[in-house]
Design goal:
heterodimer, A: alpha/beta, 10 helices, B: alpha/beta, Rossmann fold, 9-stranded mixed β-sheet, 4-stranded mixed β-sheet, globular
Chain lengths: 258, 199
């Protein structure tokens, strides 16, 4: 059976791992390669690196980091942040990223999704969707690190990106992100039921139970978290044992030497 | 030395790095003459069937692969690299494959999410590529198409995704896996080591 994936996310700024609380007040938390190696051994199923550096040198820094990560990691990893062109996608994949995650640029230039999927295959095009609940029972898509409300309804946009060829959706709830009070079950449930591509739930993981909830109560395929793992408040092995006991299919770690 | 065939269909770095991590010498090969120096071959591949076959033909690598197989050189196809071993691919249109195995490559249409993405279990025969690996071991998959109508003596591993499909094949010196051993942690490393020991 296909396992539900546990994905640590590393926000990268100027080559260092940081984690924002509600997209603000970033603090430095260490070396990305060191984190990556640790997580691969600890049983992470996949890793996501989001580059939030805003300088012009960013692209080269990220490419260099991707190269280092690809020689270190024996599990898949996704890279996102500032991807605007098919050339950006090409460079990251060429240097060893398995997937790229596109956010604001997908909204501005939806054909970036279709072109990326056509040239490199859907399986490497992840569309990141940041959502926030607006009036009533609707979630809107926000871009520019949550600064701009696009006015687009989240589920409609999710269906659109699927149609354009996205292979996966990384859904982040801005309402829940950084609060550690649990994933946003209503929108995750609604959005994951509306599309036929995998959905990664993101934003709000605070305890071991939150992971069981998102897998039991929504159709999410993967759960992403950052601080919880970086501070070692929750070990992935313990998390997977817990999910396994709850009858949620997870990849069980086998000993390195068979 | 392991030759990794470059036909401009996806990322060679991951597989090259994974093989190098096992302390095995790797050579990226792009021309027929480069096949000679390699005692094992890997055909990677990411993307679509038709452009991949077009590239292989354009570069004359299809003929080089056939003659290496006839000589008995162990060959491992990964993901799309395995799919092109079959007769035909059905994507937008029908494209002939390398024809090393009988079968056709078609899209999942059983109501499951497509792509089939993530870690899934492989029920395998416990020998060859899978020697020493636990039964129902997890490997990393990322694909939308699978091999259908495969001859009964070819599969050495199968996976359940809305029904069982062939996730690994083996016949004499030709091996193929639908998953990515280079991204499948310790289990993937063991599988690659098993391949390196072939022949």
């Amino acid at each position: 059976m296909l396992a539900k994936r546990i994905i640590p996310c590393l926000d990268i700024k100027n080559g260092k791992v940081v984690k924002g609380v509600r997209f603000q007040n970033l603090r430095v938390m260490g070396d990305p390669v060191e984190h990556a190696r640790y997580y691969a051994q600890a049983g992470a199923d996949e890793l996501v690196f989001l580059d939030i550096t805003a300088t012009n040198e960013r692209r080269d820094t990220v490419v260099a980091l991707v190269g280092k990560l690809s020689t270190t990691l024996n599990i898949p990893f996704t890279v996102g942040g500032g991807i605007r062109t098919v050339e950006d996608i090409r460079r990251l994949l060429l240097h060893g990223a398995d997937k790229v995650s596109i956010n604001s640029a997908a909204v501005a230039t939806p054909q970036l999704i279709s072109e990326g999927a056509e040239v490199y295959g859907s399986q490497c095009v992840v569309v990141a969707i940041d959502v926030k609940k607006t009036d009533g029972n609707q979630w809107n898509v926000f871009i520019h690190s949550g600064q701009t409300d696009t006015g687009m309804e989240a589920v409609a946009w999710a269906k659109k990106v699927e149609e354009l060829g996205a292979g996966e959706i990384l859904l982040t709830s801005m309402d829940c992100d950084g609060r550690q009070e649990g994933y946003d079950l209503p929108i995750t449930s609604r959005l994951a039921a509306a599309v036929n591509i995998p959905v990664i739930a993101s934003g709000g993981a605070g305890t071991i139970r939150h992971f069981a909830d998102v897998f039991k109560l929504t159709n999410a395929d993967a759960a992403l978290a950052a601080s919880l793992f970086h501070t070692r408040s929750l070990e992935i092995a313990a998390l997977k044992d817990f999910l396994y006991q709850k009858k949620i299919p997870v990849r069980r770690m086998y000993a390195e030497a068979y | 030395m392991i030759g990794i065939i470059d036909y401009e269909a996806g990322n060679l770095n991951s597989i090259a790095t994974a093989v190098r991590r096992l302390s095995v010498e790797v050579r990226i090969i792009r021309k027929n003459e480069e096949f000679e120096a390699c005692d094992k071959l890997v055909l990677p591949g990411v993307g679509a069937f038709a452009p991949a076959m077009r590239q292989l033909r354009k570069k004359g690598l299809d003929a080089a692969i056939h003659s290496a197989v006839l000589k008995g050189t162990p060959l491992l196809g990964i993901c799309l690299g395995m799919q092109v071993f079959f007769d035909r691919g059905y994507e937008a249109r029908v494209t002939p494959g390398l024809g090393l195995f009988k079968g056709k490559i078609r899209q999942f249409d059983t109501g499951v999410k497509v792509p089939h993405m993530g870690w899934n279990q492989v029920r395998h025969n416990g020998t060859g590529l899978f020697a020493g690996l636990p039964q129902d071991c997890d490997f990393y998959f990322a694909h939308s198409y699978y091999a259908d109508g495969v001859d009964a003596d070819v599969p050495c591993g199968k996976t359940d995704y809305g029904g069982w499909f062939v996730s690994a094949v083996e016949k004499s010196n030709v091996f193929g896996v639908q998953f990515h051993p280079e991204k499948s942690g310790a289990a993937g490393e063991r599988l690659l080591r098993n391949f390196i020991r072939q022949g």
